[in-house]
Amino acid sequence: MTRPNGLTDALLAACAERHGTPVWVYDAATIAARVGELRAFDRIRYAQKANGNLAVLALLLELGVEVDAVSAGEVARAMEAGHAPESIVYTADLFDDAALEVVRSLPVQVNLGSDFMLGQLARVRPGARATVRVNPGFGHGHARKTSTGGESSKHGVWHEDLPRMVAEARRLGVVLDGLHVHIGSGSDFDHLTRVCSAVRALARLFGPELRRVSAGGGLPIAYRVGEAEFDVERYCHAWLEAKRAIEADLGRPIELEVEPGRRLVAECGVLVARVRGVKLQGAQEYVLVDAGFNALLRPAMYGSWHEIEVLGARTDAPRAPRLVAGPLCESGDMWTQGPGGEIEPRDLPATKEGDLLVVHDAGAYGASMSSTYNGHPLAPEVLVQDGVARLVRRRQDIDELLAQERGLDR
Ligand code: LLP
């Protein structure tokens, strides 16, 4: 929840000046530091849905991190950034036409989230190898919508069905050599380490071909000041112990990977928006800024908390409860709201037209979940590395918004 050191007041103000607002700004050093914390795993695989910017994917490649892709589009993104197709894992609960074509024509790895995918995979890639994403019967995330285990989640192969799927794979000539469990996003230490014992039990149900285990992602960050930090060292330790236990059970080595999205990129990024005016609705003060849930969907979708800072405000400036809202024609376009959409005024310093607001921890599930709702073009992205701020995505222009509908029958 603290802003990365590399993103100074002057740098953010200069980005806003140069590229306009809203603008996303990411700090490369923070990403590198987060990667460094997970080196105990044999492989770190980045869940690019958190932030698929090509420059971010290229930076992670340099740092020795491989990527996960959930669609043909994400496979293309990873390859465009320089990742070799054989290093990319396609994980999903279904193949659409584009994904099947990718799997047919490129040597990407496949992680199967549904049993019905086996036959489809065997058809396009006879003799394939694949891993299985298992739903261990429990899940946990920062919100109900981000839990991906248990009966109320569509994700993964139900744990009790694993032996049947292993037998079916043999019949179809598919080699299942890996086990993957991801219980949800923004989970906590207790739930994430419960996965260790679940995976150990599942490994015993697996076939003799088991070579790889993925712990999935879901590692949280502290979004609020004063919130307990996730003990990443203890997490790594728990998984190394689980790995040793599984290896002892199987009598041979396995490879252990981890698949975080949020943990690697959330804290590196901020969204900078400009205050366009302040107004009162009865007793409530509204600060209206030029970015809403078209840019960062998380507060509207989950009631997620993001620290909001008034750029350049003195630390001792008096604070009062204020609401911050965006430009969209939706009452839910509000930065300061709870999970049920209830307004949650936030103690903030006074602002005026032209001030810049900095929304913290916006590097994960920020730009990647943006939309053009209400006709707002997608905002630009800037990556700061070694003190240099580089534009890594330009602002979309309104012409581009219209291009796909021009020149067609009407
Ligand atoms: N692996 C799989 C198979 C996943 O489905 C996900 C996230 C991850 C890894 C990465 O999870 P992470 O380490 O980032 O928690 N839009 C939501 C998060 C949805 C995550 C979806 N899957 C949010 O803004 O909180």
Please provide a written account of the structure.
This protein has 12 helices and 18 strands. Helices cover 29% and strands 22% of the residues. Helix 5 (97-105) links the parallel strand 4 (89-92) and strand 5. Strands 1, 11, 12, 13, 14, 15, 16, 17 and 18 form a 9-stranded mixed beta sheet that branches. The chain binds ligand LLP.
Largest sheet: 9 strands, mixed
The number of helical runs is 12
Unique ligands: ligand LLP
Query: Judging from the principal axes of the Cα atoms, what is the shape?
Result: globular
**CA radius of gyration:** 22 Å
Name the average pLDDT: 97
Number of strands: 18
Question: Gap between N and C termini, in Å?
Answer: 49 Å
Judged by helices, strands and strand pairing, the structural class is alpha/beta
- How do the SSEs run, as a string of H and E? HEHEHEHEHEHEEHEHEHEHEEHEEEEEEH
Unreliable residue runs: none
Outline the secondary-structure elements:
Elements: H1 9-19, E1 23-27, H2 28-36, E2 43-47, H3 54-62, E3 66-69, H4 72-80, E4 89-92, H5 97-105, E5 109-112, H6 117-124, E6 129-135, E7 157-158, H7 162-172, E8 175-180, H8 189-205, E9 212-214, H9 232-250, E10 255-258, H10 262-265, E11 269-281, E12 284-289, H11 298-302, E13 308-310, E14 319-325, E15 346-349, E16 356-359, E17 381-385, E18 388-393, H12 398-403
Parallel strand pairs: 1-17, 2-3, 2-10, 3-4, 4-5, 5-6, 6-7, 6-8, 8-9, 9-10, 12-14
Antiparallel strand pairs: 1-11, 11-12, 11-16, 13-16, 14-15, 17-18
Helix pairs in contact: 8-9
Bound molecules: ligand LLP.
Ligand LLP binds near residues 68 and 262.
